[in-house]
User: Which sequence fits this backbone?
């Protein structure tokens, strides 16, 4: 490795030899990207959370998922200054063991909560577009709230073992890999990436097909539905695919070398910079997710006009009237190609 190669401090229970990795190659890049994500993601997700909350109060289904996604991103962004400090100090964690565990726990949870909410958004759009009539009355906000709560609980429980891990010096950078970590990488790739990828690919392919066959949607409406679906797919692939592919490559290499310590160390050392850069890329999701809200809104004026609805709601006026004023008649394609109008709310396309 070029640059300053530093022996990685290992956790108790990890093999005794050190793996030489270069922290200097990626340090400036990581600090700049994490800093930019923090500076841009904080206001963007605050605004998104506020606007989607207002729309959720009107009974909007999609807004529930977007609101939860924004909250998740805000929680993660709040930990980025700690990661920046950690990276700047040559990957030496000086803030205490529990601070490391909580920060790592938030990172892992955010990663897979974000992935699952992208799946939820894709499935919701799939039902609203492909099965427009069949889903009427079934797409309820209570269901969206229950699904969102289940996502948080499920991901939180799955990553609870993070608090049982021991760290010394570094924070969740255990080199060389062990068989347990290799198995964990295989599981994360399969359950946390491959299955969601299949869901997102299937639902959005059907959305594109339905929009293409539609004869009642205007060109502008078709473009809006397509842009939202495209944004979900692109964000998923750009932010999450590289990191999970690296995890899979690492696990395969461990299996190929049959756990040989020196070979695994050499391989992981050569891949370290690429690995942390792709890990950093996954955080760009925190800035990209608000784009989904922008594409889901019918217009830029709507995003700011929603405050009028909040003012009426806060003064205890008739919320139903406000809700009806935000509805539009949007013809959606059916399986047989015919059209049927149905009301949709602000962030739905």
Assistant:
């Amino acid at each position: 490795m070029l640059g300053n190669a530093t022996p990685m401090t290992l956790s108790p229970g990890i093999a005794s030899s050190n793996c030489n990795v270069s922290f200097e190659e990626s340090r400036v890049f990581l600090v700049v990207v994490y800093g930019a994500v923090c500076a841009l993601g904080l206001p963007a997700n605050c605004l998104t959370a506020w606007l989607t909350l207002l729309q959720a109060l009107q009974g909007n289904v999609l807004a529930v998922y977007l609101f939860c996604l924004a909250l998740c991103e805000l929680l993660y962004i709040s930990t980025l200054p700690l990661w920046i400090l950690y990276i700047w100090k040559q990957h030496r964690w000086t803030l205490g063991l529990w601070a490391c565990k909580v920060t790592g726990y938030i990172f892992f949870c955010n990663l897979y909560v974000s992935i699952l909410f992208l799946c939820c958004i894709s499935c919701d759009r799939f039902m609203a577009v492909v099965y427009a009539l069949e889903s009427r009355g079934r797409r309820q906000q209570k269901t969206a709230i229950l699904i969102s709560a289940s996502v948080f609980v499920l991901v939180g429980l799955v990553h609870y073992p993070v608090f049982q891990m021991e760290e010394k010096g570094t924070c969740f950078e255990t080199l060389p890999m062990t068989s347990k970590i290799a198995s964990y990488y295989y599981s994360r790739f399969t359950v946390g990436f491959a299955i969601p990828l299949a869901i997102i690919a299937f639902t959005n392919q059907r959305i594109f097909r339905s929009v293409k066959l539609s004869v009642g949607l205007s060109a502008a409406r078709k473009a809006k539905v397509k842009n939202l679906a495209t944004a979900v797919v692109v964000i998923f692939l750009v932010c999450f695919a590289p990191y999970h592919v690296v995890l899979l490559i690492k696990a395969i290499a461990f299996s190929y070398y049959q756990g040989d310590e020196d070979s695994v160390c050499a391989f992981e050392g050569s891949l370290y910079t690429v690995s942390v850069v792709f890990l950093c890329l996954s955080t760009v999701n925190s800035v990209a997710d608000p784009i989904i809200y922008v594409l889901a809104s019918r217009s830029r004026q709507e995003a700011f006009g929603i405050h009028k609805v909040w003012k009426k709601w806060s003064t205890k006026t008739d919320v139903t009237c406000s809700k009806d004023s935000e509805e539009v008649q949007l013809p959606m394609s059916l399986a047989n190609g015919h059209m049927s109008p149905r009301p949709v709310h602000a962030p739905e396309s």
